[in-house]
Amino acid sequence: MKEILKTYLTRYTSLDEAAQQAILDDLRVEEYKKGTILLKQGDVPDRCYFVLKGCVRQYTVDEDGRELTSEFYTEEQAIAMFHRHRGDPASEYTYACLEDTAAVVGALDIEQDMYDKHAQLEGMTRRMIEQSFGHMQEEFAAFVASSPEERYMSLLRKRPNLIDRVPQHQLASYLGVTPESLSRIKRRVHP
Questions:
Q1: Which UniProt keywords apply (predicted)?
Q2: Longest Cα separation, the chain
Q3: What is the pLDDT of residues 169-186, one digit of tens each?
Q4: Which CATH number fits domain 2-119: 1.10.3720.10, 1.10.357.10, 1.10.940.10, 2.60.120.10?
Q5: Which of 23, 50, 61, 103 is deepest in the core (most CB within 10 A)?
């Protein structure tokens, strides 16, 4: 599993083999069973994650009790918690494992210690977050400007593996449609 991380260290840093190994030795990889809740909406996060294997759903429960899916994190995606520095650091989302999942787990209270110990790790993390944030901005702009069918087609092009990995009602929520509408879209696209 740590080979995936080594790829990232090589891509985003100029560390030699020994320095890469020192970072890998300090990182903790944990495995979670399908159905595990990593963080509940309203709880204050104390960890961040980097998915090595599996699928994690990000969702919120609205005032009517409906679950609204806003993201799926799969292999080689980071789940960063950006709200911990605001006045109310409670999470707006729940993060649940949809599959058995293996992830690097970073304790937020020792994040600065890791950066102090491994200077290039902070730069690598920043570059990964910037890349992820840029991707999210593009996805959001495309989502707003597209029809439900265009969103589905985009998903088929960019993340086809989600179609078979995610329950259809959650996929429909992610696309901003009802499950019935998603079924109609699928029939039109795949006659």
A1: Activator
A2: 56
A3: 999 999 999 999 999 999
A4: 2.60.120.10
A5: 103
